[in-house]
Amino acid sequence: MKDLRDRYFRWLVEHRIEVLALNVALFLIVAVGAGRVPIDYTMEQFFPGWGPERERYDRYKQSFHKEDAQISVFWKDSRPPGVALYRDLQQAARYFEEAGLLGVQWVGSVEVAEVVEEDGESILHVHTLIEEERLSDAYVRRVLAEHRDDDLYRGYLWNAEQTVFAIHGTLDPRDMEDDQRRREIDETLQSELEALAGDRAEFALSGVPITRSRIPKLLDEDQRLFVGAGLLVFLAVLFFFFRHLGQVVLCLASVVPAYLSTVALIGLAGKPVTVLTGFIPIIVLVVGGSDIVHLLSRYRQLRAQQTGNADAVVSAFSELVTPCFYTSLTTAIGFLSLVGTRIGIVMDFGIFTAVAIFLTYGFSMTLLPVLLSFYTRRRFNDRGLQAPWARWIVDGAAGLAVRPARKVLVAFAIVALIGAGLGLSLRVDSYLIDDLKKSAGVRRDLIWVEENGFGIYQVVLFLGQTDERPLHHPEALRWMEGFQEYVASEPAVVNSFALPGLLRQLRRAALDGDGADEALPATVEEAGQLIFLAELQDADFFSDVYRELDGEAQVIVMVRDAGSRVMLPFLRRVDRYLESNPPPVGSAYSTGTVKLIQNYSAQVLRNFGPSLVIAIVLIFAVMSFMFRSLRHGLVALIPNFFPLLVLLAVMKIAGFALKPSTILVCSISFGLAVDDTIHVLSRFRRAIGEGMQTRPALRTAVRDTGPAILMTTLIVSAGFSLLMGSRFEVLFLVGFMTMVSAITAVTADLFVFPAIIAAAWRKSERRSHASKETQEAFAHEHRYIEVADAAPSGLVRRVDPAIGGLVTDPGPDGGGAWTGHCSRGRAAQ
Amino acid sequence: MVLRTRDGRERTREMRVSGLAMNGDGDRTLIVFENPRDLDGTALLTFSHPQESDDQWLYLPSLKRVKRIAAGNRAGSFMGSEFAYEDIGSQEVDKFTYRYAGDETLDDDETFVVERRPVDSSSGYSRQTVWVDQEGYRPLRIDYYDKNGELLKTLLFTGYRHIAGTYWRADQMTMTNHQTGRTTTLTWSDYAFDTGLSERDFSPNGLARAR
Q1: Confidence category of residue B71, pLDDT binned at 50, 70, 90
Q2: Which chain A residues are closer than 8 Å to B42 by Cβ?
Q3: Residues forming beta bridges with residue B96, ordered by sequence position
């Protein structure tokens, strides 16, 4: 294998012009292809792609399309209700109509059935709640006072105090999937309403289409700003360590073509770049960049040891091609575990990120050695890599590696136990738009709307006729009303609307407002005739809740975005209610965007444990295969729980809840943490294979990989920490959690992992368990004697080239503190 | 009246319609419903007026009350069908302005094509195009355009019969809504003319006995 790897990289170096030309050509092709892939940031993609819940929702949406199509403005005026307020609301409603919204409803358009006296005759009149021709301050106040507590309007047209009034319009079904059109409507309405409100009113434009219009826009802005800034920081930190602009640019040489190739593949798969796949550049930069840092560090070490450039390139890449493959594989497994979410956009993100990681690996192992082969410099400025603080940390870790491990292990166990304890008590809660910080406009508006007594989200009960009995059958009406009463006491519920309320109003009007007749229609004939009566005057009088021709009805329950801790039990209670109280007429099920999203969140949370276990098992299998030892695979896995447990503990202390976005970051963090472990363990095994004792081998592993691990940690932490400035909580968490995870991972890998190895490693394993691969490395790698430069005491200056084999430096105290190795045939200076 | 949804589901309504032509005023129409069962006996009386809003009374047998109802939304659907009230109500000449748009052959029939625009702003249409056969001046087809000027519905008249040697009546009127894909077919039968009905039979007070 070693020969094969050597031959491959040597062939690359020898044919560098051809390989470079091929890569440039490939780059141009994928760049053109990538430029043609559409961008789709719509939020509907987050809906679960299939399953009975989705099928039920789609079926429901065929009948009642308003559920997630309603746009509303909530208007709080400094003036008391009267003509002036009416005129402003009228103007706002006009803006809604001009924007192309359908079925605009407000106090001046909602129809009410009432009996009026005309020429001594009582006439049943379906008219607008406030009639234009009767307008006066006193009239407006009287009508509002009369209907103030009417369940049909309170919480829909006004709040309980009648200080905030609402106007609702429905997006044309043709515009539902048109993100651009939604954005136009949002921007137009916002600017018109701002001009109308002036200083005398405050308002919030809200609704699911508005949220869907604004979130992708905000996300796009934040993504550009923070990912761009993250990239700059990444490059700055890289430059700080490498002090070489060319090598900094080299890091991008693998990442950029890999990202463009991924985008081109996304296009070939017939998919757009989404709000999630838009994050792939920063992920491949971090993941791929980490391997590149290790490769460059090793290359520079070899160059510094007098190795010729071509040989240094071949040796460095040949040495790290396998560990880097495994780090890519384990990270890819972490992302591929997202396929279990069954959410199309998340699955695509997992798959294409995994693809991008492997493409980065491919370019790193093809383009990077070719570009490095053009270098002629032998020595590089190592002041960054040898910075005193970095050396202090690495030396400290290396020193700890040769001391008894018990104290470190005890400390590790304590921290892990605390982390597990806090992690298990972590609050599980997710809101419908909680990926936005509370200070962000969209969420602030929603909170304002809810605080003023409205809800913009709906849980719906969808009823279908199953036999000859129509859904306006009295038994069905009583059942619907019973359900409304049942949900009325729920803390998340603002109010509810359904056919019974409208029929009550109609019946009262048909009976000339006789107060004794507040009852529901007693017979199906009575209900049918009342419906006919209303539809004579307004064919759409019931259309929001009842479609008689199609035999379908709905009970609309307006809810606050109360979080999954409130909503999920509520939704479960609703379903239990339906099970224990099935409708006497027709069938019923609960559905709606709220249920779909909350169930999706619950599903992701439910799958978190199994997904994490599967990812851990797979990573364990990969590492066991890599090291040809189950024991070593297990040993390599242990320190990676440390960042995860600390992360959960920090989340608990910082007050974050467990929700789909945090789970996403947990999985990614775990995948990233494994990388450094592989590099440390890989170097350790090589050292063992070279004949070192366990502790010196640990020390060598820490010293050799430490600077690169520190560098990647700093890059990851600094780059991602910028995301904490985002208006999106999910981006904030990506930044915060990745930073915490990276810092704890480096602590675990440099300080805890050696202690675990020291405790777990049996003496007999020193050689017998050294893999074939490391034996090979032992035979071929060390053509140079490195001991003179590397010996800590600095006492070994010359080694007889004829001796080869193990060379022990007595160290300052003569205690054999360091062991190195040289092979036969080549002499050190 | 058969109502069909886009996916082929059907509902049937049955009714008895009586009409009285009035001199100097619009027609009087009485519709008594027989099916669906919950509307059995419900009666709707309409006094049509050329210029003013129609007067309507409805008898609700379940409540045993006659309700006078205010002028409704003329553009609204008639009983959930694709017909609006203004489509099936009396087609008074004064309710439109007209423009002759030429001659056309429609399914082997020579027709006059007339474009008419509703006078009443509350109409649901911006204009209608009517194909009238040149032989008997019978409407064969009407295209209805919505307020945005887009084709909304098409009404086809088929099976014209010459009744009592005087009146041409279509057996079937099929309205297709191009925007929703729904159709409604009105099938007429048992036409009878000069049956001796008088104004007394079209009185609000007599609605309860209309069945």
Answers
A1: low
A2: 529, 532
A3: B118
d(CA A678, CA A324): 8
With an 8 Å Cβ cutoff, is A310 touching chain B? no
Assign residue B12 a region (left: φ > 0; alpha: ψ between -120 and 50; beta: otherwise).
Answer: beta
Distance between the two ends of chain B, CA-based, in angstroms? 19
What is residue A506's predicted lDDT score, i.e. its pLDDT? 85
Rounded CA separation A460/A704 (Å): 61
Q: Averaging pLDDT over each range in A92-106, A294-308, A731-745, B7-21, which range is the top one?
A: A92-106
Residues of chain A with Cβ-Cβ distance to B67 below 8 Å are 123-124, 510, 533
- For the purposes of burial, counting CB atoms within 10 Å of the CB of A815, is it exposed (0-12), middle (13-18) or buried (19 or more)? exposed
Longest dimension (CA), chain B: 52
Q: Contacts of residue B40 in chain A, CB cutoff 8 Å? A: 525
Write out A617-641 in H/E/C secondary structure.
Answer: HHHHHHHHHHHCCHHHHHHHHHHHH
Q: Among B3, B11, B39, whose Cβ lies nearest the Cβ of A529?
A: B39
- First and final C-alpha spacing in chain A: 31
Q: Chain B contacts of A537, Cβ < 8 Å?
A: 69-70, 72-73, 76
pLDDT greater at residue A691 or residue A781: A691
Q: By a Cβ cutoff of 8 Å, what residues of chain B touch chain A?
A: 3, 5, 9, 11, 33, 36-40, 42, 44, 56, 58, 60-63, 65, 67-70, 72-73, 76-80, 84-85
- Of A125-139, A420-434, A786-800, B154-168, the poorest mean pLDDT is in A786-800
Chain B residues with CB under 8 Å of A521 CB are: 62
A124 closest CB neighbour out of B68, B76, B80: B68
Residue from A124, A517, A548 to probe the interface with B (highest B Cβ count within 10 Å): A124
Residue B128 has pLDDT above 60, yes or no: yes
Among A116, A125, A528, select the one facing B39 at the smallest CB separation.
A528
Q: Where are the domains of chain A?
A: 2-40+215-377+391-432+599-779, 73-196, 466-585, 782-829
State the pLDDT at residue A775.
43
What was the ipTM of the complex prediction?
0.80
At A616-640, the pLDDT tens digits run 888 888 888 877 788 878 887 887 7
DSSP letters, A774-824, are HHHHHHHS--S--HHHH-TT-------TTT-EEEEE--TTSS--EEEEE-T
pLDDT digits (tens, 9 = 90+) for A313-362: 999 999 889 888 988 888 888 788 777 766 777 788 889 988 998 898 99
Range A121-140 burial, b when 16+ CB lie within 10 A, else e: eebbbbbebbeeeeeeeeeb
Give SS3 for B166: coil
Residue B80 and residue A539: Cβ atoms within 8 Å? Answer: yes
The residue in chain B having the minimum alpha-carbon distance to the alpha carbon of residue A547 is B80
Percent pLDDT > 90 in chain A is 20
Candidates B5, B67, B78; nearest CB to A549: B5
More confident residue, A276 or B2: B2
Give A657-682 as a 3 state SS string.
Answer: CECHHHHHHHHHHHHHHHHHHHHHHH
Give the model's confidence band at B172: pLDDT under 50 very low, under 70 low, under 90 confident, else very high.
very high
A2-40+215-377+391-432+599-779 fold: Multidrug efflux transporter AcrB transmembrane fold (1.20.1640)
- The kind and range of the H/E element at A239 are helix A228-242
Task: State whether A526 and B62 contact (CB < 8 Å).
Answer: yes
Q: Which of A44-53, A378-387, A695-704, A711-720 has the lowest mean pLDDT?
A: A44-53
Q: Do B39 and A537 touch (CB under 8 A)?
A: no
Q: What are the structural domains of chain B?
A: 2-209 (2.50.20.10)
Specify the pTM: 0.72
Q: What does pLDDT average to over chain A?
A: 80
